[in-house]
Design brief:
This protein is mainly alpha-helical and 363 residues long. It has 3 domains: 169 residues, Rossmann fold (3-Layer(aba) Sandwich), CATH 3.40.50; 54 residues; 88 residues, Winged helix-like DNA-binding domain superfamily/Winged helix DNA-binding domain (Arc Repressor Mutant, subunit A), CATH 1.10.10. It is 56% helix and 7% strand. It has a 3-stranded parallel beta sheet with strand order 1-2-3, with helices on both faces. The protein has a two-stranded antiparallel ribbon with strand order 4-5.
Length: 363
């Protein structure tokens, strides 16, 4: 499940966990802070033990699995020191935890789905050699998860949703540069979470305005929805600004609140993330070209043809047409651009486009 930041992906996962369908058990993991394969395997094992306390026999078996990993302690569910454990210990524990969970779920008539929130961030961190990580270990995690989804033993019972603001395509591109050739997510269905539609966004804005005792008619709520492009976080931010500033809930008040969010150096919505992350996603030579492409698209009155953008790219650096095509593909996957049926590119989100023009000073 992918989408731009501030759409509400985590809220969707938490809502699904709170209200699972009949016969389902949901297990939620925020894995963004995990920095090793050991931590990941330990987290999965701990969650299984924590969530399904009625699996008493199963819990003993998982603890036995920990013991077998060269003397791991039972209490905190930790591995032994790195110097004394086999390299494959985390694979063994992760696989056994999932296998035993699936075996037990058949007995209790439940199906389990794992929600891995920010899995791409975790994999990226584990792959980063500057922080002691290893691309090979990161690739192995993706391979083990794929094997669990496809194994004759676990495939029919292991269900997972992975979610993140950073696209998995960036992680795979980096791993491929280190020689990795597998396609570990080609069995997963990609679902993109869009902004709220006009009716839902207007309804949210109206309820927030009412909750803050800001008297406004449906026209103002609809304006907030339009100006924010249906992003729930930005809707909250506009209403919050009206409240803090003591501004009236009028057309002029909403426009003033939006303009403040776009121009204040405080950057409360962290919109600068959209330019800052380019240096993380692209090497310096490509980043310069990406900025030129986005600058041009941001000020174009309508969609821009690929040929025009190829010329823009060549004016910014020594690059051939195939590289530009790939950069444009990646910028659409990163939710910067959208491509219409005629092959023209434009900024995807109007609010981000307005901020980009202001912050970059392009015209």
């Amino acid at each position: 499940m992918e989408a731009e930041r501030r759409i509400g992906k985590t809220s969707i996962l938490q809502k699904m966990c709170a209200e699972p369908g009949d016969g389902w058990e949901a297990v939620y993991f925020d894995v963004e802070a995990i920095r090793s394969a050991d931590e990941f395997a330990e987290a999965v094992c701990a969650k299984v033990l924590e969530r399904f306390t009625y699996w008493k026999k199963q819990g003993h078996r998982l603890r036995d699995s920990l013991k077998n990993v060269r003397g791991a302690t039972i209490g905190p569910l930790k591995f032994p020191e790195k110097l004394t454990r086999p390299e494959s210990s985390w694979k063994t524990l992760l696989t056994q935890a999932v296998e035993q969970m699936i075996e037990q779920q058949k007995k209790v008539g439940k199906r389990v789905v794992f929600f891995f929130d920010e899995l791409p961030w975790m994999v990226s961190a584990i792959a980063n050699p500057t922080h002691g990580g290893s691309p090979a270990t990161a690739a192995a995690i993706l391979d083990v998860l794929r094997n669990l989804r496809q194994s004759p033993t676990t495939g029919q019972g292991f269900r997972m949703v992975q979610c993140g603001s950073i696209g998995m395509h960036h992680i795979l591109d980096e791993l491929h540069r280190h020689g990795y050739r597998n396609q570990p997510v080609n069995d997963l269905r990609l679902v993109e979470v869009p902004p709220l539609d006009a009716a839902a966004a207007s309804g949210l804005a109206g309820r927030l305005l009412s909750g803050e005792q800001l008297t406004a008619d449906a026209t103002v709520a609809g304006l907030v929805a339009e100006r924010t492009g249906g992003f729930p976080y930005y809707i909250h931010s506009v209403v919050s600004r009206l409240t803090v500033a003591g501004s009236p809930a009028t057309v002029a008040g909403v426009d003033a609140a939006v303009n403040w969010l776009l121009t204040t150096a405080l950057d409360p919505c962290d919109l600068r993330h959209f330019s800052r992350r380019i240096g993380s996603y692209f090497p310096p030579t490509e980043a310069k070209i990406v900025l030129a492409l986005l600058d041009h698209a941001a000020v174009a009155p309508a969609g821009v043809e690929m040929g025009v953008l190829q010329n823009v790219a060549k004016s910014a650096g020594d690059v051939d047409d195939e590289v530009v095509r790939d950069l444009l593909r990646r910028l659409t996957l990163d939710h910067y651009l959208t491509r219409d049926a005629d092959g023209r590119y434009a900024f995807r989100h109007a609010l981000v486009r307005r901020w980009w023009v202001l912050d970059r000073g392009v015209s």
